[in-house]
Amino acid sequence: MPPPERGFDAMRTPTTYVYGPVPSRRLGRSLGVDLVPFKTCTYDCVYCQLGPTTNRTLRREAYVPTDTVVPQVQERLAGLAAPPDYITLAGSGEPTLHSDLGRLVSELKRCTGVPVAVLTNGSLLSESAVADALAEADLVVPSLDAGNAALWQYVNRPHPDLSFEKMMTGLAAFTAAFTGKVWLEVMLLSGVTGMESEVRCIADRATGLGLDRVQLNTAVRPAAESFALPVTRERLEDLAGLFNPPADVVADFREPAAQEGAATPDDVLDLLFRRPCSAKDVADGLGIRPNEALKLIDELTGAGRAEAVRRDTGVFYKAVEE
After folding, report:
1. Is residue 122 assigned to a domain?
2. Does 294 fall in a domain?
3. Which of 144, 166, 222, 297 is the most exposed place for a label (fewest CB within 10 A)?
4. Alpha-carbon distance 9 to 20, whole Å?
5. 199 lies in which domain range?
6. What is the domain-level CATH number for residue 230?
7. 149 and 165 in contact (C-beta within 8 Å)?
8. pLDDT of 117
9. Residue 163 located in a structural domain
10. What is the spatial distance between Cα 91 and Cα 264, in angstroms, rounded to a whole number?
11. What angle do CA 117, 129, 247 make, to 5 degrees?
12. What is the number of structural domains in the chain?
């Protein structure tokens, strides 16, 4: 059987838009929903684990059919031994570019009973249509990776029509009006934004936003640019105290509940298309034994459908494009 194609046009399986659950260091077991075509984003972040952005845009479109996505989510939930902690709208690009986001959030909350989280880079929160679309979500996790415009341009490489101050104004307005929880993720890079002076600047920007939580993260997976290097855990713990209240260091995914599921090579490939994963990530996300995860990974790498990438933080696997 030839390797499956990736992309919204391929429709290679009934779960084209749904993947996981994947182990998330922020959200526990997260059932992902991909809302935009691969690497369709407002940013081109140097640390992105999916590689460079191929379609940097501000245009919002109905990228996925809500009437198809909702039944796919329901079907995946019905097949799980235990419900995920969140249904997470994210995936291969910036989810707020999906113009039917509000209806999708509403439908998922109505029919599943699982909390809905949206991971966003926060670049479009200044648009009222985007803020309205997020209104019914249980959790929104925007990003703030720099405390000034120059570093924001360097790290996030935004669309040229975006501005740092407009992004910050939108973030402040959204957190003031949103009735759900807002967790701010801060991605720190060694030698770039992982220095105390730069983190203090980010912490000053975060002060007064009314955030429920600030989480520090770093580039532990293979990144778009080789110079996007991780900050050590010990250093992150030191820097967390610069926030008021102190930030959480996003730890490794907690040990999963004991369960024995079944998975196929295509299930693993669904994860690897969305992000590089370690063997433990695959086992935790699919609820299978570690040796079964390794068996499936070996099958994929042997067939040339996946490849290993070695980093100081471990060995990760990613899907191979045809």
Report:
1. yes
2. no
3. 166
4. 20
5. 18-252
6. 3.20.20.70
7. yes
8. 97
9. yes
10. 20
11. 40
12. 1
Burial track 34-48 (b if 16+ CB lie within 10 A, e otherwise): bbbbbbbbbbbbbbb
Q: Whole-angstrom Cα distance, residue 70 to residue 115?
A: 14
Nearest to 47 by CA among 311, 320, 321, 315: 311
Per-residue pLDDT tens digits of the chain, which is 322 residues long: 333 333 333 333 334 789 888 777 778 889 999 999 888 999 999 999 888 999 999 999 999 999 999 999 999 999 888 899 999 998 789 999 999 999 999 999 999 989 999 999 999 999 999 999 999 999 999 999 999 999 999 999 999 999 999 999 999 999 999 999 999 999 999 999 999 999 999 999 999 899 999 999 998 888 889 899 999 999 999 999 999 989 999 844 234 444 445 678 888 887 887 778 888 878 877 767 777 788 788 888 888 888 888 877 778 888 887 6
Angstrom distances, CA of residue 61 to CA of 21, 97, 121, 197, 238: 26, 6, 17, 39, 42
Contacts of 67 (CB under 8 A, 6+ apart): none
State how far the Cα of 266 lies from the Cα of 228, in Å rounded to an integer: 30
Q: Output the CA–CA distances (angstroms, integers) from residue 175 to 156, 171, 184, 246, 277, in the order listed.
A: 21, 6, 10, 19, 32
Backbone angles phi, psi at 72, to 5 degrees: -65, -40
Identity of the amino acid at 290: P
Does residue 222 belong to any structural domain of this protein?
A: yes
Contact 319, 306 (CB under 8 A): yes
- CB within 8 Å of 195: residues ≥ 6 apart: none
Residue 66 CB coordination number (10 Å): 18
C-alpha to C-alpha distance for 73 and 15, rounded to whole angstroms: 8
Is pTM beyond 0.85? Reply is no
